[in-house]
Specification:
73 residues, 5 helices
């Protein structure tokens, strides 16, 4: 859902429309996700919705290939 919201915003969809389509209650949540996206903090976007972000290196990957695939997403 986070990446879908980011893709919609990058395509120029207004925040209100993104909120309605994805059932997001607070516009600051979308702004936070956009800030993380622009800063390259993609590991934060992989955190499940509703879970507090755990500070660290992000998710652990079984291999370097999995890590690279995740970075491309």
């Amino acid at each position: 859902m986070k990446m879908k919201a980011i893709e919609m915003r990058l395509a120029g969809v207004p925040v209100k429309v993104v909120m309605e389509k994805l059932n997001i209650r607070n516009k600051t949540q979308i702004e936070t996700w956009m800030r993380w996206y622009r800063a390259g903090e993609f590991h934060r976007l992989e955190q499940p919705v509703g879970k507090q972000y755990s500070y660290g290196k992000g998710p652990e990957y079984a291999s370097e290939l999995e890590k690279l695939k995740a970075e491309i997403r």
